[in-house]
User: What shape does this take?
Amino acid sequence: MHNEPWDRARAAEIIAGLTHKEGPTLVILHALQEAFGYVPEAVVPMVAEALNLSRAEVHGVVSFYPDFRREPPGRHVLKLCRAEACQAAGGDALAVHAETRLGVAFGHTCADGSVTLEPAYCLGLCATAPAAMFNDRVVGRLDTKRLDRLMAEAQQ
Assistant: This one.
């Protein structure tokens, strides 16, 4: 994952280029996260002003959707499916295993900056076992051994 460093001028450019879109709030926020890896707090008033919204409205959108990050992610992002089907297939135990091994709770990044652990909600591969997403790669049939390999890869 390679994101641009936060830059106010670049953020303004992204916002200005998307204000004409239908439903621009989500479009802009996704584009900002795509560029910077997260939605910086400093961008909330910029988006609000550009779209003639209150800061509270923009903050509400950012905080409502779990896919928006408020902090820069680690070098790798590991998303474990937390949907009911994956939970029933052993996902809860894998979630506890990942939190324990990485030393962080969901929504946080390891102290060394290597991995951000995030929840995912239905990756569409839950027929036989839990699923995960490692950076942009979907991984099905997740078990402890496969999860350990992903975490080891992420911490290299």
In short: The longest strand covers residues 76-81. The helical segments are 8-16, 24-36, 43-51, 55-64, 84-102, 144-154. The chain has a mean pLDDT of 93.
